[in-house]
């Protein structure tokens, strides 16, 4: 196929978006659909994997109705990371998918440290065990739902699930498999020795192909459901974090992206595999390179929580501003430091550099002189300081000083937050040229 368009699909935690891009990186058409998140218990999060497929079919049908499908040369999928679903031989889910933000496996994280050692696991997989990854959740299934693992023909990340539904092929990409915490990063394949030591069958995982390679072609059945052409190439993608970095052109040392989203994710670029407690190491979509990545569970989630709980009641003020915008204006008038108020933003455990699933948030220096705008600013500053702590570790471990950050995500709309990041890191800060960097990276 020699079309002049490519389709990028971003299947994220709560929605899927398909965009048709031309050769200059211009958006030609787009479509979006949401799907439900299920919480059967506090801090447990699941989804119906079939909803990923139904939503993808919906957006692709909408997209192909806006353009001539003959113009499309290929399609690539980027997805939420660490989330997985056990399926049978026909790719039918055996249970709901367990999401990356699910917190049920805290005890299993500690068990992994005791049985194998966090340092050993991080050296193999590039990342210390955390409740975000698939490995401790597989142990949880082993202990609480053993029949699920016994029945499972394959255990699929989101990318692998969608690839099978599109192509009929069992496969995933290096940069989608590795966030699960199950890949030997030096070998580029599943960590079979690690899996066997935990009585997890490596045969339940699909073959891994390089990101950017043709992973399969659209089947006749998928074409009927999506509106795509039979035989259209499907390209092996990457996790949404790595795709965002590629979409922001983080392809040389010295630059990093900072995604101020529900969680804060920041990544740099490295041509060598480096391991450090200050970050987790991911495969880049550019084969043979790596992304030293920082993750903080509470980003705009923390900001939104504070605004919802303590923000001003704007209902009777009759102002054209939201509660968050009012706090932003007030906080921007305060001097740096929030009058001595400091906040440690561990709203949802902590990964690098402490790797503590039980960590919680801390507020220090609270006095009667502080108003809610001080707390609001302290949250923005606390997240920025935490980011600098991790990324200073990246710069030291890779011997690559970071002089520039490309900001993206909902938090990058805040001029105050962008300035705080610039002040605390001492680096050049610019906003991404597109709000669709993740999809563009696909």
Written description of the protein model:
It is a single chain. This protein is an alpha/beta fold and 442 residues long. The chain folds into two domains: 234 residues, ATPase, nucleotide binding domain (Nucleotidyltransferase, domain 5, 2-Layer Sandwich), CATH 3.30.420.40; 200 residues, 2-Layer Sandwich (Nucleotidyltransferase, domain 5), CATH 3.30.420. It is built from 15 helices and 22 strands. It has a six-stranded mixed beta sheet with strand order 3-2-1-5-14-13. Strands 17-18-16-15-21-22 form a six-stranded mixed beta sheet, with helices on both faces. The chain has a two-stranded antiparallel ribbon with strand order 4-7. A hairpin with a 3-residue loop joins strand 1 and strand 2. The chain is globular, with a radius of gyration of 22 Å. The chain starts with a strand and ends with a helix.
